[in-house]
Amino acid sequence: MNSHPFDTGATSSPNPSPDRRGRGVRGFVAVTAAVALAALLTPFIPATDAVAASDRDEAAPRKIVAESRPAGRPEVLSAAQRKRLLEAASDDRATTARALRLGGQEALIPKDVIEDADGTVHTRYERTYAGLPVIGGDLVVHERAGTRTVTKASSARITVPTTKAAVSAAEAKKSALSAAKNERTRNPAASGDSRLVVFIGDGKPTLAWQSYVTGTQTDGTPSRLDVVTDAATGKRLRSVEEIHSGVGHSRYSGQVEIGTVNDNGVYELTDPERGGHKTYDMTGAGGNGDLVTDDDDVWGDGTDADRQTAAVDAAYGQRETWDFYKERFGRNGIADNGVGALSRVHFGDGFANAFWDDLCFCMTYGDGHGNGNPLTELDIAAHEMTHGVTYASANLTYSGESGGLNEATSDIMATAVEFFANSPADVPDYTIGELADVRGTGKPLRYMDQPSKDADPVKGTSQDYWTPDTGKQDVHHSSGPANHFFYLLSEGSGKKTINGVDYDSPTYDGLPVAGIGLRNATDIWYRALTTYMTSTTDYAAARTATLQAAADLFGRGSATYEAVGNAWAAVSVGSRYVSHIAVTAPSTRPVAVGQPTTRQIEAVGSSAGELNYSAHNLPKGLSINPRTGLISGTPKKAGIFKTAVTVENTAQHKARRTVRFDWPVLASGGRYFVNPARYDIPNWKTIESPLIVTGRKGNAPSDLKVTIDLVHPWVGGQVVTLVSENGTEIPVKPWYWDTGEGEIHATYTVDASAVPANGTWKLRVTDDTPGIFQPEPGYLDRWSLTF
Hints:
- This protein has about 775 residues and is an alpha+beta fold.
- The chain has eleven helices and 45 strands.
- The strands form eleven sheets. Strands 2, 3, 4, 5, 6, 7, 8, 9, 10 and 11 form a ten-stranded mixed beta sheet that branches. Strands 1, 16, 17, 18, 20, 21 and 22 form a seven-stranded mixed beta sheet that branches.
């Protein structure tokens, strides 16, 4: 039910987060031991390693020319073939669920299917638990010749203690209405009945209510807020806005062909060759408005004075978007079911936006500020209709990083549609909304080559590169790294002129990137979207999905495959391939003498082969596993160690890579003991950070000093407790009403004289933020004891 507009503007933590860039691998989970598909699954490299000077090459690399492999491309399925495959998947869903080792109360519902030329079938499923929909439980099964692999939105085991709600549906509606007020929704009203679901948010399945609230956003865009409320506590778990900004004579594309029908001498703006798509005028009309008609089949005059002009642009936009998806990917309409959408023009008064709504399967366009610039430009139309394609496939959740990827997908495909149409009146480029002048500045709304150029004093600025805070940004800004990736993958970095437009795209690491051409880049993104991405895909998983798509289409180990990885590294997602190996140095956060530590070297070769690891000048007391790359041990000496780790692919000639980094080891012992490892604090959860104390005699002192460095947007709600080796709990920091400080860097004195000094102490932090707030998670940065 997504609709997206064109935005104008006490659980312990067993493994601490190494730093803010540390991110888990999400993607492909092998179900059988068979290797046909599993061998292609590529882990995500979470951060960019230091690059030796010898790796740098300031000369711009040549564009990579490659033809995709026919076997990796999907077949064009007829409606009957697609129906048969979906019916077969439905008939076998119980068998498939058992093969995936799903729980006894889980069931699968087939949603979409793709069949490749080599016979591989990719079936997308929604999941239920005890008959309840599972939000965030979608998955894609990839199967060929008895080999089955799966891409999951979440790997969590689906189970809840009960399916009976303690909070009533009426209370959930009240919570949803409250959320709408917090979002400044005008005239909020509950829409339909709340439904009981199982929600997977932070990885833990929770019984919840899903409610919808309709109204109007502050800029006049219709609103439909999707609110998920914990059915046991009444806490709001998530709120997502589902409607977001987002021969005829056209305003933007000159004279164009459009589909019409003659109904007894009256021509209707209905396209019979494209699913019966209809275009409506909403001026002064209710519902969808009035179907646009004409008496001579000549539509508009290319100016705003003729109200048909906007309708011509809208009809042309749907025509080109339909034809692009049909000719390039064999997709039969937005939902791939042959059904045309609706276009509605002249919405509102001075409405400077456009949006796609899955519920009505329709595109809606405003006329812009002063009703002088309708938002019916081709790339805006293609952008909005692509939201429908995303909904029908990966259904990327419209918040956090997945929301940014949702927006980027629309920008990426809109750019591809513009190049596909190749209109002399709207010359193809890597900007969005450059003709409609949405903001009244005479400048494009978005720049693919350098997203930060779209700086807006009110809306903010898009990101050029991924950061740990990307998921906290507005989705129209967090889309920037993916847009930038796509431009770099298509055209490469550095200065160039394309169709008369000058570009000079930078990279995060200052290294050049080779382009593979827009067509190849588009093919890779579309296959990743429709075959490997799920509702929860983030930037880490998007890298994995596009690498898998490149492996399917061009072969793993190809120059194109490595170009995908390098384009992601250029926007700070993952590491570059150098000598056919991508390596990420571990976090260089300090460790401490006497405190056990582990650090994982993340590495992957672009071709098959076993990787061996070796290290030089590790901190004393640490060693590296030559097969896994895991560094572990207990540091014995303080200092800064200039460490070098070498990774070698024994099956590939000259595939050898060395990364170097400084690794500080803090002094710890005697009277002072420190744990400098960072521990993230999930919302309303508890974490524990250990600290080993040795060499002390007797009990701890009555004036034990506990120093903590803690960051949280609601720091007053963090309750801190010191736990001794024997389990004695000693209060450190109490709860208090937050005053907005955001951080604590303080030393507390506690009486620990009743417990032994030696042993493993734990600092326990419980997030007890009031339920009316939903802050971003915080973290314990470090803590220490002074005896």
